[in-house]
Amino acid sequence: MGDMILQQQHENWVEITLNRPERLNSFTDAMHIELRAALENARDSGARAVLLTGAGRGFCAGQDLGDRDPSKGKAPPDLRRTLADYYNPLIRLIKSLEFPVICAVNGVAAGAGANIALACDIVMAAKSAKFIQSFAKVGLVPDAGGSWTLPHLIGHARAMGLALTAEPISAEKAEDWGLIWRSVEDDALMQEARNLTEKMAQGPTLGLALAKQAIQSASNNTLDEQLDLEAHNQSICGQSDDYAEGVSAFLQKRQPAFKGTKPQ
Q: How many domains does the structure of the chain reveal?
């Protein structure tokens, strides 16, 4: 692992930190490669949850534009390739991970940085944090899933307003609108996020993964399709050791010890 992404291993979950604070953790191609490697390593090593955050005073300012200065006389960048090679695989990876991905937004989340955060399963943000769909300021359209995520989370009118005006919204307003799960005091953010991630990692992660999958599928499914998906997923959960343990713990009035393993 390089130094643009930090990885801290806990008992059964991983904390991953974007680590270019001098550039507000804006992305380069190399940083993309490191982050995807960290997420894949967490998956392959059996982690049961991931916490994603940023170093310094911001979460992520999106793409690093330093090497895209038109005054340097370079040809226009191929942004389709940038998305196809880097941002789109990252969003698809986050969405496909079979465990909860929690994001702690510790400061500004702008452009693709905002949409990477919003791709995570649960987003917590410091009250001083801001979310900015900054694409309109440089003549671009929301990417990294933003044009899909925003209307699904907050509706057409608010999505259109954020995308076309590039106005920042506070963490508290983001919570009020349903864009994120929770805003918390700045000095409490990381402890609350770590506590939540640890709780998720100790939970019935098979069921959590299937719940994540079902909620992601809901916007494209009919009610009948969603009912069938729920029945399919519930059948898998019902055969799992976690379900047996959860019921036993409930009846015995004790804390369950979930393992997150799939039925054999």
A: 2
